[in-house]
Amino acid sequence: MKLTNTFKSAGLAGSLVMGAALSAVAPYAMADQEYLLTVTRPNQLHVIDMSTNEIARTCDIPGPFGTGSIAMSPDNTHAYVLSNGTKDIYGFDIRNCDMTFKAEQSSPTLQVISMQSITVSADGTELYTVQNPVKKHRDRFEVMQPRLAVFNIEDGMNAKVVRTFPVDRRITKIATTAQNEVILGGADLKAINPETGDIRMVSKLANWEKGPLWLPPDAFAMHSQGEQANEYIMPYVTAKFDSEEWNFETAEWWWGMSRVDLETGEAERVETIPFEFIIFNFITDPRDSNILYGSFNTLSKHDISKNETLAVHELGHTYYDLNISGDGKTIYVGGTSSDISVHDSETLDKIGSIQLTGDMSTSDLRVATIKD
Amino acid sequence: MALSNNNSKRALLSTGVLALAGLASTPLLAQDAQQIIRDRCLACHTESGTAEAPSFSRISEQRKTPEGWHMTLNRMIHLRNLQISTEEKRALVKYLADTQGLAPEETEGYRYLLEQDTNIVETGIEPGTAEMCARCHSGARFSLQRRTEQEWKYLVDFHMGQFPTTEFHSLARDRQWFDIARNDTAVKLAEQFPFETNAWSNWKAADKSDLMGRWRVTGFIPGKGEFDAWMSAAKTGEGKYDLDIEGTYADGSKLAGKGNATVYTGFEWRASLTIDGVKMRQVMAADKAGNNLEGRMFLAAEREIGGDLMAVRDQGAADIVAVQPSYLRSGVSTELTLVGQNLDGEINLGEGVAVEKVVSRSKDRITVIAKANGAEGMRSVSVGKANAELAVYSELARVEVQPANAVTRNGGADSAMAKVRANYRAVGYSAGADGEAGTDDDLRLGYMPAQWSIKPADEVAAHDKDDKYAGMINAAGIFTPGDAGPNPARKMSANNVGRLAVVASVKDGDTTVEGEGSMLVAVQDFVRRVLD
Lengths: 372, 532
Known about the structure:
The complex is a heterodimer of chains A (about 375) and B (about 525). By secondary structure, chain A is mostly beta strands. Chain A has one domain: YVTN repeat-like/Quinoprotein amine dehydrogenase (Methylamine Dehydrogenase, Chain H), CATH 2.130.10.10. Helices cover about 5% and strands about 50% of the residues of chain A. In chain A, a hairpin with a 5-residue loop joins strand 14 and strand 15. The longest helix of chain A has 11 residues, at about 5-15. Chain A starts with a helix and ends with a strand. In chain B, about 40% of the residues are buried. An eight-stranded antiparallel β-barrel of chain B has the order 5-6-7-8-9-10-11-12. In chain B, strands 13-15-18-17 form a four-stranded antiparallel β-sheet, with no helix packed on it. Chain B contains 13 helices and 30 strands. The interface between A and B is medium-sized, with 31 and 32 residues.
C-alpha cells in the first residue's frame, strides 16, 4: 500500500490522521473498530484496518476463487465467503484468520452453486444460502428448483444442510432482517421465514403495477452492502415511455431501488435519479437516508429526495462496489482491480488508496465493526 | 467422463487396433464407428436399438455439420474427460457428419459460419430466438443444428448446468429465462430446426458425386490478391483426397501448394493445404452434380483472414470461370484476363467492347487489351462456346467496403491471445440507368483496388484518439489492432479498443470515390470456438 501518500492525503482531510495516530499509539483505545473486508484473487480474504487503511491480516481461502461474496456474523467477528466457483462456504474469525466453518454444497451427482446468496441469521446460529441445484445424470443435466438452504454454524468444518425450502429462480443477494426473515433478491423482492419456508412479497419488481408506459425493471444486485445503514438495496433500471410508440430515445430513463430496512423488514421502492451513467452498486449514507453514493466508472453522490446528483468524481478505472465508514465521512471504492480508492464523502475527492495483492474482481467490500 | 462418475480411464486400453483403422485408406465402416462410440462413449451414454441399427443416447437424436460434431467431441474431451485418439476422433466426426449431418439446403443462408466469415451482421433471425440464443451466439450456430424437441430441451438444461450465470445475464434476469427457454424456445427450435426433415431423408438417399479430378480454381488471398489455379484431387479413400495446387496471382507471381481434403456429408469440402509455406484451410460446398465448389479459403492460424474461393471441375468442356478485373471503364484501354478451361475459338467481349490486342493466350488463360464503348451495363463475354459476363461503366458512383461491419480484437503483447485482424476489400458500383447511386439498379462492377485508411467513427472516438491507439490498416487492406492490456496513456487506462471507420479510396479517372466500413476494435475473446 502507498502508506506515505495515504497519510499525506489523510492529513489534508483531517480526520483520518487522528484515527491512525490513535490506533498506532493505543490500538485498544477505540471502542468500535471498523474493518474493511474483501477477497482478492487467487483467493484471499483481506481484513483492512479502517483507522490506518492498512491490511491487518490476510486469510487464505481454500479452493479456487468464487465471486468473493461475503456475509458477516451479527457480531461481525466472523466472515463467511463463497469459494470454489460459489459452490463452497468457508467461515473465518477475522480477528485471527482461524477457519471455523466449512460447507460443501455440491456432490458428485448434484452441482450446487449460490449466486452471491449468503447470509447469517439474526442470532448468529444459522447460515443461509440460496442453492441452485442441477442434477448430473450420466449423460445430461437436469435443472432443479432453487431452495433456501439452512446450515448450523456450530456444525463447524463439516456443516451439512439441516433444512431447505423452495424459492424462486434468479436470486442473487440475500440478507437477514431483525425478525430473522431472509430477504430474497430476485425478480421481485420477497422474504422467507427460514423456520417455516413461508414467503411474503416485500417489493414487487418484475410484477409491479406501474402501468403500461413503464418498462419492466432490470433489477440486479451483484452486491448489496448496506451494513452501515442496516439496509438491503436492490437497484434497478427502468424507463417511462411517452406513448405506446415505445420510443427508447424519448423515454425517461431512471435508476430506481427497492430498499429494505433490515430493522423492520419493510421496503420502499422508488425511482431515485435519472439514468445518466452506469452505477453498479449503491450505498446509503448512514447519517442521511436520502443521500446515496454509487460507483462504477464514476463515484457519485445523490440526493434522492430531490432526484438530484450532487457530485460526480471520475475514477481512474472501473470499481464495481463501494462502502462507507460508520461516521459517513469516508468512502471506500473497490472491486474489479487490485486497489481500493479512498474518498472524502463531502467532496468525493480522493484521499487515499489501499493496494491489495490481487484483483478483487466481483468481490464484496464489506465493513465489519467489532465493538470493544 | 460421465457428468457424475470417473470410470472412463479404461478408454485408452483398447486403442491400438482402432487407431490403425482410422489411418488406413479403406472406407470407414459404420460398424467401426459404432464400435468407437461403444468403446469411448458408453461410460456415460447408453445404447439401445438393435446391433444393426443401434441408437446412442444424446447422440442419435441430433444432426450437425462437421464443425458441429467436431465441437461436440472437443467439449466431451475438455469438459467430460473423454479419452479418444486423434484418429478415432476424426473417424467419428466423419461418421456422424455423414450419417447425422445437414442436407445442403439446410445449410443455406448460414454457410458464412462454416466458412468462418463472421464479420457479418445477421438478419432474419426469429426475434424470440434472437433474444434467447443469439444474444450470445451467432444465429447460425443454432440454425445449423437439428434436434428432437427433447434434445433442444436437454440443451437448455446443459446451458444452466454448464454456465449457471446464463439466467442472470442482462436480457435474461428481466424475464423467466429458464421457463421461457425450456417451454417456449426449445419447442420453437424443434419446429424450426427439427431432427427429421424431408430435405435430410432425400439427401441421405441421393447419389453423391465423387469429387476427385482437376479443378479450375479462382480465389483471393489477403495481402496477395486474386489468383487462379489448377487443383488436382487424387482419391486416397472414401471422401479423402490428396491435393496439389498451382497457379498465378493477378500480379503474375506464382503460387503452389499441397494438402488434403475430406468430404463430409457428401458435399462438405474441408481441405488443409500449405501454399508457399503458409497453412490454409478451404471450406466449400459442392453442388448436387459435384461439378462446382464454392466457399472460402483462410489462414489456418487466423481464420478471419481469407477470401472467396471457387472451383469448377474440368470435364473437357469450355468454361470461363473468371474475368479479371470484372469491369471496364468506358473509353479506357485496359488489360483483361479471362480465366477458364478448354478455351478455344473466337474471343468476343460483348457489344461495343473491342479486343485491341491479345497479350497472351492458352487454353486456360487469355490476356487481352480491351476497350469498351457504349452504354453502361453487363456485356456477354464468350470464347468459343464458353460464356461469362463483364461490366462496362463510365463513372464510378459508389464504393462499398467489405466487410461493412467488422470486429477485431486486441491481442499480442503479454496476452494469451493473438490479435484478431480483419481484411478488407472494396466493391465498386456505377449508378445504373437512373443515374442515382445507392438505388436498386446500381451496377455491381466488382472488386476494385483501393487505398486504405482509418478514422475515428465519431466525435467521442476522435476525442479518445481511437484512430491513434486502436490499430492500423496496411496498403493491402489488412487491419491490425493494437496491443492487449490497459494503456496508461489512455483515459481510465483503457485498452486499445476503439470505434473506427475504415475508408476505401478508389481512383476513377481524375476523381476519387470513397466508401466506409464500420470497425469495432474490442478486447480479447478468451474462448476459442470451432464455430462462434
